[in-house]
Amino acid sequence: MPYNYELAMSADISAKVLQEMICSLVEEQTGKIVHKAEFIYDEHNQFTGMKVFFENEQAELFSNKIEQPKKPKVIDKKWKPFIWE
User: What's the number of CA atoms in the CB half-sphere (13 Å) around residue 76?
Assistant: First the structure.
């Protein structure tokens, strides 16, 4: 996987810049839009990776049907379950 980042021999990179770099790389490689990315740390507070969440890609459904108000369901209060004796 090629990287196009040119860095000096040492550099201080803030968490925000690193997050933006990873998000842009993931978007470029997957073709999906990143909604949120979170850093993952272990129990010793060491960086172990990132969780990346993508935008919801579900299609919205539309219809030309006029919505009718739903009628309340009638509950039969006289019905009782059969109990074996």
Answer: 4
Show the tokens assigned to 85: 């004796």
User: Encoding tokens for residue 69?
Assistant: 């108000």
pTM exceeding 0.70:
no
- Chain-centre distance for alpha carbon 41: 19
**Tens digits of pLDDT across the chain (85 residues):** 566 767 777 778 888 888 998 899 999 998 889 988 999 999 999 989 899 988 876 655 565 666 666 666 666 666 666 666 6
| Domain map (residue ranges) of the chain | 15-54
